[in-house]
Each structure stands twice: as structure tokens, then as C-alpha cells.
Amino acid sequence: MTHRCTRALLVLLLLVAAACGSRTDDTSAEGDDLGEDQTQDDGTDEGVLGPDSETLGSIDNPCGGEAGGETPSGVPGVSDDTIRIGVISDRENDLAPVPTVGIEEAVRAFVEFCNEAGGINGRELELLTYDSQVLRTDDVTKEACADDLFALVGSGSVQDQLGVETRIDCGLVEVAAYSATSTRAESDLFFQPIPGTQSHFFNVGPCQLIAERFPEAVTKAAIVYTDLPAASTRGAQIRDNCEAEAGFDFVVEYPLPFGSTNFGPLVSQMKSEGVKYFTMVSAVPDTLAILREAQDQGIDLEVIDLGQQYYASAVADDGAADGAMVLTNTYPFSEADDIPVLGLYLDWLDEVGATDEQITTLGVQAFSAGLLWATATAALGDDLSRENLIAELEGIHEWDGGGLHMTTDPGANRHNQCFLYLEIVDGDFQRNFPDSGFECDADSVIETEEAYEG
Questions:
Q1: What are residue 129's phi and psi, to 5 degrees?
Q2: Do 381 and 39 contact (CB within 8 A), yes or no?
Q3: Distance CA 238, CA 20 (A)
């Protein structure tokens, strides 16, 4: 039963903060201060960033500086020479690859980069790592609470609703890579570079764009999700809001029994209903299996619409997913040559020996979380305390990780309002919409009367 649940829980990562956007044509719209078409300004003459760079794209380099006054007494994780932080992520399980692969490597890369620059105000960073193994998030949070950390930085776990009360009770501030559940996204002492997964807010921009492009297809839509609470909650959120705000009609809604491998009846139902649009909230292997079955049964899907967890080589390499639209919160890796801070992330992943499979968009968000935490911590000088760190983080209302991703408001935990669609073409991810930057519109984020909790 434990193994059965472990594999099931891997689907809970669905949309790491599903992106949002507007009902526009192929030019990026302008909204408020977070809703402008975003372009890159590397802040350097050569466009090559390193530990000695004064700026990292759009932000000041938070690492470096000289040691100042006395070490504050009684502050966890802080000494004259060091600041101790931790990262929690799912690393090992004996059933399936975890979707949080690459998070720990990204935080290691950030720490190596920051220490090479001189640490933060003369204090070197020490990193402790914790493997939550999908089911052990609360257990390792207890360990982190006992390990005298200043903060958790860059964390990300599928079961992140676990351990929240433990973390709050021990006063541990978290600047995470992402939130998988609204329980963590809306918890105290919690920040993330790209706020999302909230119980009363939803980004309808992608639905509206797809509906404008494929008005007939969305009236013959199918949504499939694993019949587990978190996946079902997300499925309901997509169904309700895309129908209400974009004119979708889900003629097939299929809560897939956990552990099922017989996809024939589902695909037969899709065929009989004339489905033209398909989306799924589940694990990559099951989604690919259903797409292969659809091909075998001769279903001509006009739209395959997938979330950020599908930005993976395994999906692009499978011919059944060719033509699929895939959302991303971060700039495409194919654009790294034009985005110096994305190149910096890749360079320092190489420094820590990361594999190709560990270069992920969640890793980009973890690196951004490191920079966000460092920016707030560096601003405190020697006046280091968890309370001051919280106040500094709450004051950061415009953040893009130096140009790694869409601009957001982490200080107010404001749900992200931008999106970028990639398309799988001949085994590669190619930018589809918008032509550059991200598509942003504050009006795309709607507040729902119903609470989608989980």
C-alpha cells in the first residue's frame, strides 16, 4: 500500500504554478507594472555573468561584500563567518522518477556561486540537504527545525502540504522553489519567486488563448486526472474556470483510477464523443501512454494542452506528444545564449556536476529562490534575524530572478499573471506564444467563490 501511494503522489506536482495570461493575438500585451512584455537586459557589456558581476541581469548581485559588525546573538544558523541554510526536495523512491529532480542541484549551484563571490556580507553559506522521498516531508522538516538553520531555500516537494505546521511552529522561514499545494502556498513564513497554486485564484489566460485559436476544439474537450485529492482538485479548477471564462465544454471528464493501465476504454469514450482538445493532470508516463493509445485508435486531436511538468525531454522525444502545447514559467533553455542569468544557472549547474536530467524549470525556480533569499538577506547587513528577513521579503514586490522568468510579486504572494507556451515540434520544444518575453495581463487572474483547497 505504501508503494502504491508513493507512485500516486508523484502526480500531485501537476502545474507548479500554472501560468496565466490574456486573450490577445500574437503580440504580447501590456498590463500593469507586472504586465508588460518582458525582454532581456543583461546589465553587462559582454553578456557573460560570474561571481564578480555587479549585476545579474535585472538585479544587483546579492553575493559578496565585506563582513561588518558583531554577530547577532540567538539567531539560528548565523555565526561570525557563516549562514546555514537547508533545502528539502524529493530525491529517492523505488517506484518512479520524481518530478523535483534538479532542485537540490540548483541550490547547490547557487551556494557555490554565492560563496565564490564572497558569501553574503562576508559570511559563507553552509548548505544542508534533506530528501523528503515523497512521503517524508514532515519528517525531514522536523530534522531541519532541529539543525539550527537560518532558513529553508529553494525547497520543493510533491507532498508539500506535509510539514507546514512543523515548520511554522519552529519559526523556520522558507523561500521555496515553488508550491505544489495551496496549503503551503498560503502558509505563514513562506515565500516563492513565482507565487501560484492558490485556493481562490486561477489563471485563465492560457484557456482564453487556446479558445481564441481553436474555438471549435474547446467545445469537444477532454480532461483526465488521477482520482487522488490534489489532482482531482486541480482538475476541477481547470474544468470549472475554463468552462466559465473561456467557453470550454468538457464532454469527457475522466477521474483515472490510480494504478490503472487500461486506457483503452477512456480513449474509446474520447473517440465516440469526437474529442478535439485534450489535457491531463497526472504523471508523464500515463499521459504519454494515453496519447499513444489515442494514436492507435485514430483520434485526431487538434489540441494537446499540457502543464509545466511536461517540459521534459521524455515528452519531447515521444512522437505521440508531437504538436503538444506546453506551458512554462521560466524562459526556454533554447534562449540561454540571449539570457545571461539563465546561462549563469547552467554554468554553475555544470560546476556542481549536474546531469542533463537535472537541468529543469523547477531548478531554475530554485536558483531564483536562492537569489531572492540572498537579496533579502544581504539587505539586512549584520542586522540578521528571521523577523527582519520576513520583513525584507515582504517588501519585494517585483522579481524576475534577474531575468530567469516572468516578473512577479513575491512579497505580497500575488498570484502570477503571465504565461509562455512552448510547442513540441519534431522532438524539440520551440517557443509558440508570445513571440518574445511572456504574455501578461492582471485581468487574467480571477478570484473564485469556490475554494479549491489541496
A1: -115, 145
A2: no
A3: 12
Extract the C-alpha cell encoding 349. 549547474
> What number of other Cβ atoms are within 10 A of residue 45's Cβ?
6
202-to-23, 199, 238, 418 alpha-carbon distances in Å: 15, 8, 8, 12
Q: Provide the grid cell at 404.
A: 530567469
Q: Kind of pairing, strands 445-447 and 277-281?
A: unpaired
Residue 118: phi and psi, rounded to 5, are 115, 15
For 4, the 3-state DSSP assignment is helix
- DSSP label of 257: P
DSSP-assigned beta bridge partners for residue 429: 424
CA distances from 417 to 134, 196, 243, 370, 446 (A): 29, 9, 19, 22, 10
Q: Please state the pTM of the whole predicted model.
A: 0.89
- Strands 250-256 and 221-226 turn out to be parallel
For CA atoms 289, 290, 293, 294, the dihedral sign is negative
Cβ 236 vs Cβ 250: under 8 Å: no
Type of residue at 96: A
Asked if 236 and 220 touch (Cβ cutoff 8 Å), the reply is no
C-alpha cell at 360: 529543469
Instruction: Record the cell numbers describing residue 344, joined without a space.
Output: 549563469
Instruction: Give mean pLDDT in consecutive 10-residue pieces for the chain, a chain of 454 residues.
Output: 39 37 32 42 60 96 85 90 96 64 95 97 96 92 97 93 96 96 94 95 97 98 85 88 97 87 94 97 89 96 94 92 97 96 97 91 96 97 95 98 98 97 97 98 94 82
